[in-house]
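> forwarded from #structure-qc
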């Protein structure tokens, strides 16, 4: 997956920082988007949101995806 396929929309809140740290810990490449005007244009009413390809994930589902993807990446490195 290309780096621009994964975008973390963040306001820097505690939940945003959790997702950012998890992405970093699993070495998952992503773009960080902090422009709240852009988030509003996309219809987001809360943050963080994680875009994976064409799928938008809220905090809960983003956590699940990161854990699953990170585990897959870790298996491939062994």
């Amino acid at each position: 997956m290309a780096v621009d396929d994964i975008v973390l929309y963040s306001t820097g809140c505690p939940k945003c920082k959790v997702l950012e740290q998890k992405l970093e810990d699993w070495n998952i490449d992503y773009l960080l988007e902090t422009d709240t005007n852009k988030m509003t244009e996309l219809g987001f009413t809360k943050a963080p949101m994680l875009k994976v390809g064409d799928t938008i994930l809220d905090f809960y589902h983003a956590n699940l995806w990161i854990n699953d993807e990170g585990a897959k990446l870790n298996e491939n490195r062994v």
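QC bot note: The mean pLDDT is 91. The radius of gyration is 12 Å.
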